[in-house]
Amino acid sequence: MPPSEQGTVMPNTQQPLLEVRDLEVAFTVDGSRIKVLDGVSFKVAAGQTLGLVGESGCGKSVTALAMMGLLPKPHGQVVAGSIRFAGQELRTLAPDQLYRLRGNRISMIFQEPMTALNPVQTVGEQLMEVFRLHRPSDDKAQRKAAAIAMLQKVGIPEPEQRFAVYPHNLSGGMRQRVMIAMALACEPDLLICDEPTTALDVTIQAQILELMKELQAQTGMAIIFITHDLGVVAQLCDEVVVMYAGRVVEQADVFELFDHPRHPYTQGLMSAIPRLEDQPKRLLKTIKGQVPALHEMPAGCRFANRCPHATDLCLMAAPAVEQLTPHHQAACHYWKELTR
Ligand SMILES: Nc1ncnc2c1ncn2[C@@H]1O[C@H](COP(=O)(O)OP(=O)(O)OP(=O)(O)O)[C@@H](O)[C@H]1O
Ligand SMILES: [Mg+2]
């Protein structure tokens, strides 16, 4: 990453690091194919942090897994669209090329660190394995030194001792730091974080977010941050993509989105921001009604059955994503009327 790009937000005119366009993903369940992502598009520039938000089941994790080429096979499939990373189409990459890309340029941190760490290998062995793949010319002593330095970098006290312990000997916060260390060990250009802090207490969560910001400022990596928590979005993100039932309903610069949400779903989210002491998961429950089931999505707007402004037009015709300003898009027939 050139030093000039470190920690800066690239303008939208710059070639994006990642561009997802019209992505469609389907799962085959009991012999029938169900589309879970329908025309998802967004871009991320180097050094930028993009938040991906939306209610449980809207397709955030599936979007991340599709980008990483990690959809469960054979029943999960990208059926249309493109995923371009640094100008290269990922959909057509051979599995070994994709594997190398994941080890070198794109990393992911999962929600539950225990599932992503190997319980029978020490923390140090697992980190050294990442370095073995990323820097094959290093010898064992160099890999060990790099692993200890990385543990220190993510704020793990006494890294020499922690190097030799197993994941279950660490607290949740420390395990998550190990996961971050592993994800960062390959110095990725893009880090995808799928709710990496929801399992942690608020103080640890804040520390980890701070740490990620610091490391981003040092390396200039781009981050896609998936979360339910709009407080985290406000703290961390430059741009936000709001998803609803497998589609993007709004995307904007973070200030623009918080100040002038245009889609009624986003407006609902904004008015439901919890107080500090509330649980993040509670924040979306105040929007009445339920997301339609995947196998019976309506022809019109997918939010229409919960929308206070819906008309016959909304029930009949799906709104297209419209560019409202250079940094703001929304998919609502009435976005012009729905200013706040
Ligand atoms: N392996 C799978 N097989 C079948 N359907 C799946 C599979 N994984 C996800 N889905 C479906 O795809 C849809 C999107 O799921 P996804 O996990 O992406 O949601 P999410 O936005 O990450 O939700 P959450 O906030 O709860 O993590 C859901 O309806 C889910 O049931
Ligand atoms: Mg998820």
UniProtKB/TrEMBL annotation:
It is found in: Cell inner membrane. This is ABC-type dipeptide transporter. InterPro entries: AAA+_ATPase, ABC_Ni/Peptide_Import, ABC_transporter-like_ATP-bd, ABC_transporter-like_CS, Oligopep_ABC_C, P-loop_NTPase. Residues 20-270 form the ABC transporter domain. GO terms for molecular function: ATP binding; ATP hydrolysis activity. One of its GO terms (cellular component) is plasma membrane. Its EC number is 7.4.2.9. It comes from Aeromonas cavernicola. One of its GO terms (biological process) is transmembrane transport. Belongs to the ABC transporter superfamily. It is a peripheral membrane protein. Keywords: ATP-binding, Cell membrane, Membrane, Nucleotide-binding, Transport. NCBIfam families: oligo_HPY (TIGR01727). Gene3D superfamilies: P-loop containing nucleotide triphosphate hydrolases. Its main location: membrane. It catalyses: a dipeptide(out) + ATP + H2O = a dipeptide(in) + ADP + phosphate + H(+). Pfam families: ABC_tran, oligo_HPY. It is an enzyme of class 7 (translocase).
